[in-house]
């Protein structure tokens, strides 16, 4: 039986550290465009209490999503030991295209995947690069698509990247702007004829009714010509949606894997908000009648990395493999899960045997 196996990971973590104090001179407004009548210090203190975020990373001006993606990919290729010319697919997840500075035009053509292939120096014309826009779950969705290609026999080796420069689409008057950050993560997924490791199964859900604009892009003045577009989020709606649907989607995925919940070692969940993530995982285990969370079940890096959208899950995986996240450690045979939720609204999950 052929399974898709992660044989190398990489990450690009921007060097510019932005502490919460960076926002002390901001003036924040409500969704109704009225100034929030609270001291900025109080707003920031409440923000930290709710999200757990103390600092985040921003990419320096001039460094684009393809640059970060290529850097993460180069590390994944090196650690996997493969010849880069053997890569069949390059799948890049992002949401805002190629931007060199805040407010810059979003360059969508050529695709970021094509730019990455160019920057990696890959000459193989049979290596097919393409982008996916799937909200924060984009990297996990890329993993699912690469697995489908491998299982079907259309590919043997795939490069899956998540890269984002959210710092370039932030409205400084919006409290939610403090959540977002930049970064890139990547992995090499390869066909392995083994039943003991690799992707076991996946599940995906999409709600595009009234949930469609929970996370979106908009301008301050209804899209006047030349006006910047910002990422906007209805935080309460996103929180409620995630708690209602993500745990059951994770359960649907896990149940179809045929594995025992007592064997689940670790959950790599999109780093959106630490209180929300903890609540999601708690509800997931409650669906199995488990009230107390297993020890070391959910590694987190959001406190110092912020929410870098598609980059959060692959970056977190890379850091755990490098033993950079507390006492978290992956060993051969460990049963893990990847899961994410974001704009669309979309949810996905993958069960994986390390």
TrEMBL record:
GO terms for biological process: fatty acid biosynthetic process; secondary metabolite biosynthetic process. Residues 255-354 form the Beta-ketoacyl-[acyl-carrier-protein] synthase III C-terminal domain. Transmembrane segments: none annotated. InterPro entries: ACP_syn_III_C, ACP_syn_III_N, Thiolase-like. The keyword Transferase applies. It comes from Sphingobacterium nematocida. One of its GO terms (molecular function) is 3-oxoacyl-[acyl-carrier-protein] synthase activity. This is 3-oxoacyl-[acyl-carrier-protein] synthase-3. Pfam families: ACP_syn_III (PF08545), ACP_syn_III_C (PF08541). Keywords: Acyltransferase, Transferase. Signal peptide: none annotated. Residues 130-207 form the Beta-ketoacyl-[acyl-carrier-protein] synthase III N-terminal domain.
């Amino acid at each position: 039986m052929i399974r898709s196996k992660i044989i190398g990971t990489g990450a690009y973590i921007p060097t510019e550290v932005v502490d919460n104090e960076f926002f002390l001179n901001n003036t924040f407004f409500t969704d109704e465009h009225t100034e929030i009548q609270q001291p900025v210090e109080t707003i920031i203190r409440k923000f930290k209490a709710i999200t757990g975020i103390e600092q985040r990373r921003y990419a320096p001006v001039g460094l684009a999503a393809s640059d970060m993606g290529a850097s993460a990919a180069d590390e994944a290729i090196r650690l996997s030991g493969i010849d880069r010319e053997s890569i069949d697919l390059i799948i890049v997840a992002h949401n805002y295209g190629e931007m060199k500075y805040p407010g810059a035009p979003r360059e969508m053509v050529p695709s970021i995947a094509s730019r990455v292939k160019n920057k990696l120096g890959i000459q193989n014309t049979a290596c097919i690069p393409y982008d996916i826009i799937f909200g924060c779950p984009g990297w996990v969705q890329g993993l699912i698509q690469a697995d489908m290609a491998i299982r079907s026999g259309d590919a043997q080796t795939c490069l899956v990247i998540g890269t984002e420069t959210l710092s370039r689409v932030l409205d400084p008057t919006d409290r939610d702007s403090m959540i977002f950050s930049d970064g890139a993560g990547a992995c090499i997924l390869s066909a392995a004829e083994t039943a003991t490791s690799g992707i076991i199964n996946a599940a995906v859900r999409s709600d595009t009714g009234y949930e469609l604009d929970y996370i979106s892009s908009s301008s301050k003045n209804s899209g006047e010509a030349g006006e910047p577009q910002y990422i906007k989020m209805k935080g309460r709606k996103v929180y409620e949606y995630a708690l209602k649907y993500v745990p059951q989607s994770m359960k649907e995925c896990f149940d179809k894997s045929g594995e025992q919940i007592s064997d689940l070692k670790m959950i790599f969940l999109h780093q959106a908000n630490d209180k929300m993530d903890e609540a999601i995982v708690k509800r997931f285990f409650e669906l199995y009648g488990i009230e107390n969370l297993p020890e070391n079940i959910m590694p987190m890096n959001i406190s110092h990395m912020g929410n870098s959208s598609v980059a959060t899950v692959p970056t977190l995986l890379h850091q755990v493999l490098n033993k950079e996240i507390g006492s978290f450690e992956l060993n051969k045979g460990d049963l893990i899960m990847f899961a994410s939720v974001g704009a669309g609204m979309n949810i996905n999950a993958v069960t994986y045997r390390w």
